[in-house]
Structure formats: structure tokens, C-alpha cells
Amino acid sequence: MGILDASEVPPTYSAQGVVEGWMAGGDAAIRRAAEGAEDSYPQGYKDMDQFGLTELDTLVGIAASGRTPYVLGALQHAKDKGGLTIGLTFNPNTTLASAVDVTIAPLCGPEVVTGSTRMKAGTATKLVLNMLSTAAMVKLGKTLGNLMVDVRASNEKLRVRSVRIIQLALTEHGAGRFHVAGDAAVSYAVDQTEKLQQLMQSCHGHVKLSILIGLTGLDVAAAETLLAKHHGVLRRALDEHIGIARLDMPEKRPCLPLDKTYVVAVDCGGTKMEATVLVQSTGYVIGTARIASTNFATTPVNLFLAQLENVVTLALGGASWPRFEKVWVGSAGCGMDNLRTVLHNHLSGSLFQHTDAANIKVSSDALLLSSCLANAGVDQGVILVAGTGSVVMRCNHQGDELARVGGLGYLVGDEGSGWALGARAIKYTGAVVDGQRASPSTLSNMVLKTLACQPDRQALQTAIYQANDTDMDRKTRICNLARVVVEAALDHQCPVAQDMLASEASDFASTAAVLVQEGDTVVLGGGLLSSVPAYADLVCQELTKRGKMNISFVKVTNVSKEAALTLL
What we know:
This protein has helices spanning 2-13, 28-31, 41-47, 69-80, 95-99, 120-139, 156-173, 193-202, 207-216, 220-229, 234-242, 301-315, 337-349, 371-376, 418-434, 442-451, 457-464, 471-479, 481-490, 495-512, 527-531, 533-545, 559-565, and strands spanning 58-62, 84-88, 102-104, 177-180, 183-189, 245-246, 254-255, 262-268, 272-279, 285-292, 324-331, 360-363, 380-386, 390-396, 401-405, 521-525, 552-555.
């Protein structure tokens, strides 16, 4: 397992020789087991000579039993050279634990075939080694976010992947556009694959260098110098280029440069509160953060403002707040003029008191999605939101609402929403519990399990209408059952759940069809449409059945970033 993990590190992270794998019996033992080789302590000690270990090295000794002589000999060699030693075993109270600096001893329980440690212990070994090597590569700066930016494009598959990684990095950490080497005045959209390939070729196939140049417009020599200065850590190079200094403090709080201006957009929806902060001049992403749902309509003002401050601070990476040039806050419940005015007054009088009040925009959370129309370069289109609730709006690219259908709230409408699906599931389960109105299914069993109740009327009522509940508690409980319907339909192929999903998609499409016109750009937002592709596909198919042809569908995953981009 050690050899397997070590062999994957060079192509994945361009880290030749950083992680080496070896086993008792040498390379020959990879194909044919050398059972006796592991019994020699002296041979284990001697075989480590070939690696020239020093106090800068770490040796991980793997011995499921915790007493393999060969491994113990190798570890002693590393200790004698002053290196760090780690023991990976599945028998913690053995010689190995006392022979190393750090012991990792996962508890796997007995093997299915007694003594066959290639099974559970072998699987756990690979998982632990994955964690160790991945963590080491992250600390060495071989990643940017979750992207492996030091991948070595050694074959066609990896060359295609490299271009995709560059594209993702430029989208996530920039304004969705990139520069060519040495020309910061010209930028191209990230969907121009040929230009991305040219960029990578000019950087000798180096993904990390391509991303740095694409985001900054530096020439190759300057970008290489900047990367070398920061020992190849791309994030630090990017931070220096825009002037962020990471202080040598335990919390690593960044200091944002005061000579730059910033914009922030916050999405306060039914399922999450999300904020994205950008540098106004370049679109460089300072950060995006998400916390649990808090919206202005259902939360005390002081709590709402505290949570908004929290999510923006998280997006800033803990930095002190700069002066924001422009702000856009979209919150569920703020579709009404009076609530928008109240929230605007609170924002301009407290959190964003240093921002010109005219540059603070307040809207419903759904209207944040109009930013996708502006970013797509279309004059107007239709926004479909299906999350906790649902609504359909026709908007222009400036964020003005032109028409609206649905969105009357969970007591009146919200067709196709999480509430509608959850309500269907609970009504159906009630019919099953009655014993004569519906037959049990995978869905009803999963609903009862989720609610932790027995299949009888009183238990179900108690689970739904719990003592000291507020209306919001009950609404949330029922909305959460939408996930159960989706899981039953897609993962367990339950016909009852599949029919519910299709029926809600049809109802929602009927509502949407009132505003959708042929050739429209339709933005799909909300938790159900953005995170359940199968449900979004059903809605799109139902619109097509209703004669809505040549529709361009846009699926959104980071609403706050889309909104922030329109503030540049």
C-alpha cells in the first residue's frame, strides 16, 4: 500500500522523490510475496541506507501486527539519523508503538478471514496513507483550494485535466476571465479552451504558473520569480500580487491593503447564508463563506445583523473589515418594499456605515440570480427558484423585476419546492399509517425512520407537532423531508417517490410556463434545482413539453459570487 500511494504522488503533485515506497524483499516482492524477508531486523536497518535519511526526513513504518522485525529495524535506522518516525499498526499495544514518535492505530475490528490483514487493515492502511500524503502536499503548496495545481501533464488524459483545472481556478479565484502572459490589459472568457491551451503552452505545461499568469497578467519570467520567492506556494504568490500580507500570528489573520476597494454580496436564503468578497478592480476572490440559514423576515434584527457580520468576516478570512465600495444583500422575505427599506436602513446605519447608502442594494434572495443574466450578457430572462420555497420571476439584467408568478408562501403555493415535496411525503406517510388509504413503500419507511417514530397515528402526530414548536420549527421539519423524497427516488428507485418528484416538477413547470418564452435564458436557483440535477432536468423536460423551445438553462451553485461580479 505504501508503494502504491508513493507511486501516485509524482504525477499528481509533480513531487518526484518526495515520497518513496519500499517493502521487505524489495521490488521483486511487489509481484511475488517474500514472506521470510519481513523477519529480519538487520536487513530492515541496512536497506534504509539507500535512501540517505537525515533529520529532515520522516519514515512511516507499516506493520499491521505491530511487531514485524524488518519494519522495526528500518524505523530504528531513521531514529539513529534523527528523523521523525511514524508507526501505522492495527495492534496498538505492541513493540511498534514504543519504537516510534507517533503511532497511528485505527480500530478496524477482526478480519472477515482471521489473520488476513490485506482486507480491512489493508483498506484502512490505504486511507491513512492517502491522508498523510495529501496533507503533506497541501502543506507544501501543491494545491489551490481543492485543485491539484502541480499536476504533471504526462499523458493526454492529464493534459485535458490540466486545462480543466486552470479553467476552474480562474473561475473560482477570479472574475471568470484570464490574461495572457505579460498583457494585463486584455482578458478572455474562461470558456475559450484554445486560449487556455495556448496559455499553458507558454508556461511550458505548468498548471500553477498558468493560473498565476491568468489571474495577474504577469509575464512568464516575473511569474516564475514570484512563485520561487514563495517556494512554489501559489496562494502566497497571489496574495502578494494584490497586496495581502498574512501576519505571523497564531490565527493567520490576513491584512487587506487599504489602497484597494472591495465589494461584497450576501445571499440570505432559506437553506444557507453565503457571502463572497471581491477586489473591485480585478474581480479577485478574497473568499466565500457559508453558514446556516438566517433571513431578515423570520429572524430578530440583532441576530440577523450578527450572523451577516459573521459570514462576511469568514469570507474575509478573519481580516478586519475594509471599506466596501458596493454591497448587495438579498434575503428571503425582502420581496416587499417596506422590509427592504427597513433592512437598508439597518445596513447603512451599522455594518456598512462607511459605504455610500446609494451603493447598498437590498433585494429578495431570488433577485440575486438576476446577476446571472448580466454575467451571461442577455438583456432579460426568467429566474426559477425551487428551494425551501419557490418563485418564478422575469427580470432584466439590471436586476429589475418585470413580472412574478408563484412565491405566495408555503401556506398558499410554493409549487415544486422543498416544502411541497416534504408535505406530500408526510401526507402520504399519514395515509400509510392509517392502514387503508395507502400501501407502505421505501419512502414511507424512510420518512418514519427520519422522524424516529413508530408506524402508528399517535407517534406520527407527536413527531410532527412537537411540544413547544413554533410554526417555523414545523415548516423546517417538513421541508427537510424533501431530501428523503429525493434519496428514495434516485438512490432507492422507489416508484412512489419518483412519482412525487415528477409531479412537483410538472406543477412547477406549469407555473413557470406562464412567464417563460421561446428562446429565453432561464436561470435555475435554489437548493433543489442547483443541487439535485435530476430534479432540474425534470423541470426542463416539463417546460419543453409545454412548447418552450430553444431555452438556454443556466444552473447556479455560487449565487453570492455571481451577484458580487455585477458590482465590479
